[in-house]
């Protein structure tokens, strides 16, 4: 089974490290929510995961319309959690700007607590990064200033 993942970087006020978001699932618009921090991907815990949180995540990914969200979904994640108990107002640019417990303060979250979402609408962002995961094959590309390049 292949995974098509979309993700986007955002400016960080927390650290100098790049912060990004991706959806890990079978499409570019639906799956588990993961955030990039200091060179690694981490899960978002679904404790108090709301439609406001999902709206912020989808907008950060570059989608034009709000989303649907699920907690305790059938898919399971395998990583550590970076955020839990998010409280977004739906006006934030990134999930990091929403109220939360602090980075890596996600005690009580397990593999069944992965936040899951489905983004709706058209993709409006032009600087998207796409990853394609298949057995024995991994490719990540990005578009910047209308030019596509492979990321190694």
From TrEMBL:
A Pfam family annotated for this UniProt entry: SRCR
Compartments, as annotated in UniProt: Membrane
All copies of domain SRCR, residue ranges: 21-120
PROSITE patterns: SRCR_2
Keyword vocabulary terms for this entry: Disulfide bond, Glycoprotein, Membrane, Repeat, Signal, Transmembrane, Transmembrane helix
Primary location class: membrane
Topology with respect to the bilayer: Single-pass membrane protein
Cellular component aspect of the GO annotation: membrane
Disulfide bond positions: 45-109, 58-119, 88-98
Name this polypeptide is given: SRCR domain-containing protein
Organism: Dreissena polymorpha (Zebra mussel)
Organism taxonomic ancestry: Eukaryota, Metazoa, Spiralia, Lophotrochozoa, Mollusca
């Amino acid at each position: 089974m292949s995974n098509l993942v979309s993700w986007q970087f955002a400016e960080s006020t927390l650290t100098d490290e790049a912060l990004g978001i991706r959806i890990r699932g079978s499409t570019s618009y639906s799956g588990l929510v993961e955030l990039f921090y200091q060179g690694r991907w981490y899960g978002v815990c679904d404790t108090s995961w709301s439609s406001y949180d999902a709206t912020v995540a989808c907008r950060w990914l570059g989608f034009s319309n709000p989303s649907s969200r699920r907690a305790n979904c059938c898919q399971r994640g395998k990583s550590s959690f970076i955020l839990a108990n998010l409280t977004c107002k739906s006006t934030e640019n990134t999930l990091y700007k929403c109220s939360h417990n602090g980075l890596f303060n996600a005690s009580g979250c397990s593999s069944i607590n992965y936040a899951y979402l489905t983004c709706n609408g058209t993709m409006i962002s032009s600087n998207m990064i796409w990853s394609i995961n298949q057995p024995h094959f991994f490719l990540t590309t990005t578009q910047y200033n209308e030019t596509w390049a492979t990321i190694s």
